[in-house]
Amino acid sequence: MLSNKNKEKKKDIIEKKKEIVQSESSWKDYILSMIYGPLLITQFILVFFFYNFYHLEILAWIGWGFIIFFLLFGGLPKKEFKTNGEISEGKGFINTTKLVDTGVYSIIRHPLWLCWILLSISVTLMSQHWLMVTFAIPICGFVYGETYLLDKGLVKKFGDEYKEYKKKVPRMNLIFGFIKYIYMKNN
Questions:
Q1: Banded pLDDT at 95 (limits 50, 70, 90)
Q2: pLDDT on residue 92
Q3: How far apart are CA 169 and CA 163, in angstroms?
Q4: 14-26 as b/e, with b when 16 or more CB fall inside 10 Å?
Q5: What does pTM read for this prediction?
Q6: Alpha helix locations (H) across the chain?
Q7: Cα distance between residue 107 and residue 101, in whole Å
Q8: Which of 141, 111, 139, 142 is nearest to 32 (CA)?
Q9: Between helices 4-23 and 130-158, what is the axis angle to 10°?
């Protein structure tokens, strides 16, 4: 059990880490999301107009499969943050004070961002229209680019602990992450 003095010390360290991360963020950190956000919304709208444009049923079904995966897999990060992230009262689930490297975060570092990429790919497969592809390519690129910025911020927030975590867990490669997870678990 931590003493009150140790609890206060830990709380001060957490607050200093938050201040460092928050003080260094600017509008430039949000440029990518200001681009891929509207593109993704546009894709959602266009899928209603171009659904199964070339009548390739198998692609539409694969798209629906990705949607189901998105819905099932997309909730796991929130659960993991709430369970293991030591979130301050009244804060959102992404405001963790402890590095979460369990559950889905022991397989890939950015599962939420992978879900957004899969969602863009799924509506592209469902529509099968060239216009959707022109939206999906920059969305995937910008979302992936966002993970580089996130890693930078998380290194500032968690320091060497996050650097070690980066060495162990891939950014978004789910297949490699599963293989690595199974290998680490068996050794």
A1: confident
A2: 83
A3: 10
A4: beeeeeebeeeee
A5: 0.81
A6: 4-23, 31-50, 57-74, 76-84, 111-127, 130-158, 160-168, 174-186
A7: 9
A8: 142
A9: 140
pLDDT digits (tens, 9 = 90+) for 165-187: 999 999 999 999 999 999 988 87
Structure tokens at 183: 């290998």
What letters, b where the CB count within 10 A reaches 16 and e where it falls short, cover 37-69? Answer: eebbeebeebbeebebbeeeeebbeebeebbeb
Check: CB of residue 156 under 8 Å from CB of residue 29.
no
* pLDDT of 13: 56
Spatial CA neighbour of 46 closest among 132, 115, 138, 136: 132
Note whether 54 and 128 are within 8 A (CB): yes
Encoded tokens for 171: 């950014």
pLDDT at 23: 45
Q: pLDDT per residue over 123-155, tens digit each?
A: 999 999 999 999 999 999 999 999 998 999 899
